[in-house]
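Hi C.,

You asked whether I'd gotten around to modeling the 213-residue construct. I have! Everything is below, sequence then structure, no commentary in between.
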Amino acid sequence: MTKILNELILYLRNPVLEKDANQNFWYRFRVLISLLWISITFSFFLSLVNGILTSIGVLHEAKHATDSFLNGDKGLEFLFIAAIVAPIIEELIFRAPLTIFKSPLVLFKNPIQFSGREIILRKKPLVLFKNPKTFKIAFYTIGFIFAYIHIFNFEMSLNVILFSPLLVAPQFFIGLVFGYIRVRFGLIWSICLHSLYNGILISLFLFASNATS
C-alpha cells in the first residue's frame, strides 16, 4: 500500500494523461482496494479534525442533507442512490471527459465546395486535454468543481461558507483519486471505487445511527 500511496502522491503532484500498461485484473483490483483504504482513512482523519474544531466552537455544527436519511427509515433507499446511482452519474459528468482524446463527432470529414473552390475547414477529430498543461489544469479544476458541488449538501450559513475548504476537502481529495484511477485504468474502475467508497461510508453511518437509536 505504501508503494501505491507514493505513486498516487507523485501523480497528484504532476497529473499526466497516461494509462497504466498493466492489464492484469488482480493487479488493478489490489490498486483499487488500496486506493479505497487510502480514501477512507483520509476522510476519517478530516472528520476527526472537523469534530475537534466543532467541539472547541471554531466550526459550528452544520446540518447535512443526509442527516434526515440516516436518521430516518429511508436508509436503504439512500444507500442505493449513494452507492449505485450517484457514482455512475458523477463519474460520467466529472471523470469521463478526462481521457476523451477524440470526439465521436468528426466535423467536415469532406472538403466543402465554396464558389468552385475546395475549402477544408476541419478534417481531424476534435481533441480534449491533449496538451499536458491543459490536462493538468483540467484535472484539478474538475476536482475543485466536484468538491464544491458537495457544499450544497450542507445547510448554508456564513460559518459553512468560511470553512467550506475544510468541509469539502474530503471530496476534493477523493475526486482526485477517482480521477487518478480513471486515467490509469478506465472509467469503470473509477465508478467502482466511487461506489465502494460511498457504500462503505454510508453503511457505517447507517449502522452507527441504528445502534444509537
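If it helps when you're writing up: Confidence is low (pLDDT under 50) at residues 102-114, 118-126.

Thanks,
B.
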